[in-house]
Amino acid sequence: MILQSIALTNFKNIAQANMEFSPKVNCLLGNNGMGKSNMLDAIYFLSFTRSFGRLPDSLLIKRGEDYAILRANYLRGDVAEEITAGLRRNARKTLKRSGKEYKRISQHIGLIPAVMAAPDDLTLVMGGPEERRRFLDMIVSQSDAAYLDALIRYNQALEQRNKMLRDGASDITLYQTVEMMMEMAAETICNRRREFCKRLSTILADYYGKISGEAESVGLQYIQSGAEDGSFANALEHARSRDIVLQHTTVGPHRDEVLFTIDDMPLRQTASQGQAKTFVTALRFAQYVFLSENTHLHPLLLLDDIFDKLDAERVARIIEVVRGGNFGQIFITDTNRKHLDEIVAATGSDYRMWHVDNGNFTPIEL
Questions:
Q1: Are strands 300-304 and 330-334 parallel, antiparallel or unpaired?
Q2: Is the dihedral of CA 237, 189, 228, 127 positive or negative?
Q3: pTM of the predicted structure, to 2 decimals
Q4: SS3 for 204?
Q5: Cα gap 175→163, rounded to integer Å
């Protein structure tokens, strides 16, 4: 997967940008708040139709403007793709592939696989279980259309059941009908999540060792909410009286958890800041490998300020990992040119570098 060029109008602090990229390494250099991360977020948006930071679409439009346009040209294998997104205040966003608008935006997910590593990744460790569920869903949905379909069906049925609970519905037959729909979707969701966690844990351990240079063991464990050894429909039935009182559904994939561990202890409770940062960086590299294996494409790799809060030795090891050649096209931001120069020198690849200042991108040479 290669992003050949991008054109932005009124996206965040970027009034206008037209950029052609290297198929290998692309570096964005500048102070904080100048627009480096915004460019990566634009690339991310064109893959996932939403901001990496989950900002509402209205906040992605440049202040004082009424609309934003994102257009990009890709080479997906041997096939050229043009993706265009349009945002307008108080209106539905539009997404087009080769000039034709999608009937359902969810149809786009997985077409342009991408992996982004950013400082906010620490919320995967320190945040609540919803952050880790979102992480699971984002990755598996890119490589498995059946999973995405099941997830959409489950969430629709869940919303219907929760509305029934809030409304005080008492029709058992209606509950059973909705719960049967939930069970059918939940089986696919849980099976795929379990398989994913098992595979990712192995890859994660390898990359953590490469970056940390230490003998610590890390992993992740999928913890299912209810029905581990029985019918999910039965679990919903048993929880129904409690759910009626609480007015929401208390068991199911929407309550699942992923436990991150270091030396068999919960990472959230025992890891240092450096260990946590190393873990999430290794997690993103593992995500990249998983998607490569399952989509048979090299995803776009977006590395936003990943060296922050890491010592010089770990920075050097990350550069060595990137140098390894397992990655395709890379986009990387930093405030420190030394890191970017080292990346370019280590990879020995074709590269392009820009200085970023107040949403303007100026090409620079080594």
A1: parallel
A2: negative
A3: 0.86
A4: helix
A5: 11
